[in-house]
Amino acid sequence: MSETPDLTVVVMTTAPSSEEGTRLAKILVEERLAACVSRVPAVHSHFRWEGEIQEATEELLVIKTHARRAPDLTRRLSEIHPYDVPEILVLPVAAGLPSYLE
């Protein structure tokens, strides 16, 4: 992904509980790494971990930020996240309402 300073990206991660989702969201917004974090409760995840199929109910965090902040956000999120290997996906935003993206 080409990181253009004015490019908006969406970062996705999951949290093990609503309390953790709230904690992560507040830190990222307070530290100005994210403009907004939307929390989606009760996401049912199926995944392979340590050689076994696992299932968990998690909270999905949809984080909006600028591409130039994504490396710092990724670093900070991996520091404060309770998972050993958190899902952290950075997705470019192709288009959107200009006034929102500003």
Q: Outline, from the CA principal axes?
A: globular
Main sheet summary: 4 strands, antiparallel
Question: What gap, in angstroms, lies between the N and C termini?
Answer: 20 Å
Indicate the low-confidence ranges by residue numbers.
1-5
What is Rg?
14 Å
The tally of beta strands, per DSSP, is 4
Strand content range: 35-45%
* Helix fraction by DSSP (H/I, runs of at least 4): 25-40%
Assign the structural class, choosing from mainly alpha, mainly beta, alpha/beta, alpha+beta, or little secondary structure: alpha+beta
Count of runs of 4 or more consecutive helical residues? 3
Order of helices and strands: EHEEHEH
Q: What is the strand arrangement across the widest sheet? A: 2-3-1-4
Q: Which whole number gives the mean pLDDT?
A: 92
List keywords for this structure.
single chain, about 100 residues, alpha+beta, 4-stranded antiparallel beta sheet, 4 strands, globular, disordered N terminus
What is this entry, summarized?
The protein contains 3 helices and 4 strands, in the order βαββαβα.
